[in-house]
Amino acid sequence: MTDTTCLVTGANSGIGKATAQGLAERGAHVVMVCRSEERGEAARQAIVDATGHDAVDLLLADLAVQADIRTLADAVTSRYGRLDALVNNAGLYTAERALTPDGIEMTWAVNHLAYFLLTNLLRDLLMETAEAHGEARVVNVGSEAYTGGTIDLDDPGFAHTPYSGMKAYARSKLANLLFTYELARRWRRTGVTANCVHPGVVATGFWDRNTDWLSWAGWLFKWAYKSPESGARGPLYLATSPEVQGVTGAYFDGTEQVTPQPKAYDEETARRLWERSAEMTGLSMLD
Fold first, then answer.
1. φ, ψ of residue 85 in degrees (nearest 5)
2. What is the DSSP string of 223-282?
3. Which of 43, 142, 179, 282 is the most buried (most CB within 10 A)?
4. 147: which DSSP letter?
5. What is the C-alpha to C-alpha distance for residues 105 and 237, in angstroms, rounded to an integer?
6. Any idea where the domains of the chain sit in the sequence?
7. Predicted confidence (pLDDT) per residue in 150-208, tens digit
8. H/E stretch holding 176
9. Which residues on adjacent β-strands are paired with residue 128?
10. Whether 169 is catalytic
11. Rounded to whole angstroms, how far apart are CA atoms 118 and 135?
């Protein structure tokens, strides 16, 4: 991965940090995107110390805030001459319904709209990289939780229907898959590939911010989950492996390509989701 540039969101802990470290071990110039400067810098330094590889940068952005995402995309575009892999990893689960500063339900904003907006804002850089170097890759970290999800484009944030943290999370993960398939269709002739990966159930701090029964159960059984390093195998495989060169519009469970439920690749739903997402992010003129 020498001479490549790879960006990972949510890179200060868990799967994101393990993915960033794996990329650094392979020699990539790694751009870590984190919300907290303190935690992000601690993670960046830990990766540098562990790998002996100092081409690891930290950029700050709150992915719940669309203005932050735009500022982040501008910084990446101006600072780096190429972007070989974009790993959309940052995500959350919240038991209680909350709104972002943009007035959007938090889970939908961070887990789906941030993927959509950042990827599209970096479109030109990704396509230029693919044209100059043969390929660029978008890796969307999803979850098997999509199986319990439904898409309601009239009320994506549960403003008019009863909120459930798990329903909101499952909806966002279904959106990750639909977005991946639609992205692959729209960009199929550009050299930019788009794939989605379920990393497995991983022992991270994912459940720590909530006190509902699901978060309590998640914390209680954390000992039985995969390590972050094991969970990062799938994202790293899709970001780096020559075995998936040219593969696009696919879903992986770790490093194994699998077929999701039909609702995950319904073309009409994916098209409507793209259009609704463009409206919600102010990118309604996108192709």
1. -150, 130
2. GGSBPHHHHTHHHHHHHH-GGGTT--SEEEETTEEE---GGGG-HHHHHHHHHHHHHHHT
3. 142
4. G
5. 32
6. 5-281
7. 999 999 999 999 999 999 999 999 999 999 999 999 999 999 999 999 987 654 555 55
8. helix 165-186
9. none
10. yes
11. 19
Give me 204's structure tokens. Answer: 């991270």
Burial of residue 112 (number of CB atoms within 10 Å: 0-12, 13-18, 19+): buried
208-229 pLDDT, tens digit per residue, is: 565 554 444 444 444 345 677 8
For the chain, how many residues are written? Answer: 287
The token duo for 205 is 């701090």
Whole-angstrom distance, CA of residue 76 vs CA of residue 78: 6
Q: DSSP label at 110?
A: I
Residues pairing with 7 in the sheet: 31, 86
Beta strands in the chain (DSSP E): 5-9, 29-34, 56-60, 85-88, 136-141, 192-198, 250-253, 256-258
State the virtual CA torsion across 83, 87, 93, 97 in degrees, nearest 10: 30
Task: Name the active-site residue from 169, 181, 237, 265.
Answer: 169
Which residues is 105 bridged to in the sheet?
99
Q: Judge whether 197 and 139 are in contact, CB under 8 Å.
A: yes
- Three-state secondary structure call for residue 36: coil
Residue whose pair of structure tokens reads 């960009």 in the numeric block: 187
CB-neighbour burial class of residue 26 (10 A; exposed 0-12, middle 13-18, buried 19+): middle
Q: Are 17 and 50 in contact (CB under 8 A)?
A: no
Q: What is the pTM of this model?
A: 0.91
Please state, in angstroms and rounded to a whole number, the distance separating the CA atoms of residues 287 and 284: 9
Q: What is the CATH number of domain 5-281?
A: 3.40.50.720
